Amino acid sequence: MATHTLPPATERWLEHYPVGAVVACGSVTLSEAELLEFAERYDPQPMHVDRAMAEAGPFGGLIASGWHTIGLMMPLFVEHYLPFNGMAAPGIEEVRWHRPVRPGDTLRPQVTVLESRVSQSRPEFGVVRCLVEVFNQKDELVLSLRPTNLIRRRPDAAAQG
Amino acid sequence: MATHTLPPATERWLEHYPVGAVVACGSVTLSEAELLEFAERYDPQPMHVDRAMAEAGPFGGLIASGWHTIGLMMPLFVEHYLPFNGMAAPGIEEVRWHRPVRPGDTLRPQVTVLESRVSQSRPEFGVVRCLVEVFNQKDELVLSLRPTNLIRRRPDAAAQG
C-alpha cells in the first residue's frame, strides 16, 4: 500500500486506520548534548553517559539509550499517527533495538497498521495494533515495537453498532 | 526465594543472577513538575501535559507517560541490578502499564530472574531474562516488562567453558 496520510489529529477515527496502511511520521535529528542529558537522568549507563568508556567499548563511541530513541519517536507518532486526546495504551509487544543510534543521527519513524477491529467490551472504540519502525539516515532499521492503541470510532459509526 | 542482594555493580557476574532471585531496587517519588517536563519533550499527549484536559478525561487528572515510568525505573535498575558497564540490551518482551502513575506517587521496582544461561554464540557472556515489576506506594503493580540482558561471566568461570 502506498504511504497513507491521515487527517489532522482532531479528525482521526478508527476508519482511518485500515490494515496495511503505512504512515510516514517525519524525522528528528539527535544531538550529543541531548543524548547525554536524557541518559544522565533516565538511563545512566557508561555507553550512554561516559564518552571515554563508550569509546573504549564495543560501539566505539556514545550511543543513545534505547528509551531515548523511543522518546524521540513518540512526539512524531503522536503528531502524525495518534488521534488527538486519545486513550492510554495498555502495552507494547516486542521492543527491539536493532542498531545503535549515535549523536547526529536523523531518525525517521514509519507506522504500519497490523490489525484494526471494533472493541468487543467497549464498542465506541477500535483496537488497533501497529508496527512502529524507526530508520536512520542510511535507511537502516534502528528500532521496532508493536503498540496496541484504543482509537475512537466516529460517533455515527459507533451508534450503528 | 528471599530478597537477593547483589554485590556492588563492578563485581556482578552471571553467577550472581540465579533463576528465582528477587532484587529490590529502592524507590523514587515523581513530582508534577517532572511529569510535565518529561511529557512535553517525549510524549506530548493531553493526559500527560494538559492539566485541564486530563482532569476532564477518564483518569481525572494528569498521569505520567508510560515511558517516563520506565525512565524512573531505569536508574534504579542500573544501580541495583545491572553490572557496571554492561552490554546494550537487544530488546524487551511485553511492556504492560497496569495502572496510571500520578504526581506524588512513589515507585518501587523489583526484579525477578526468570532465566539465566551461558550464551552459545559468546560463551564469555550469560543471557539473563528477568521480569521487572514496579509497584506504587499502595503496593499496586503499575508497570511490568521483560528485558533480556547480556551479563559477563567471571573471567575464571568463562575460561573453564
List keywords for this structure.
homodimer; alpha+beta; Thiol Ester Dehydrase, Chain A; 5 helices; 25% helix
Q: Helical percent range of chain A?
A: 25-40%
Q: Give me the CATH superfamily of chain A.
A: Hotdog Thioesterase
Average of per-residue pLDDT values of chain A? 94
Which class best fits the helix and strand makeup of chain A? alpha+beta
Estimate nothing, just give the exact number of structural domains of chain A. Answer: 1
Number of helices of chain A: 5
Tell me the span between the first and last alpha carbons of chain A.
28 Å
CATH architectural type of chain A: Roll
**Main sheet characteristics of chain A:** 6 strands, antiparallel
The radius of gyration over CA of chain A amounts to: 18 Å
Most extensive interface: pair and counts? A-B, 37 and 37 residues
Under the CATH scheme, which class of chain A? Alpha Beta
Q: State the shape of chain A.
A: elongated
Low-confidence stretches of chain A are: none
One letter per element, helices H and strands E, the order of chain A comes to: EEHHHHEEEEH
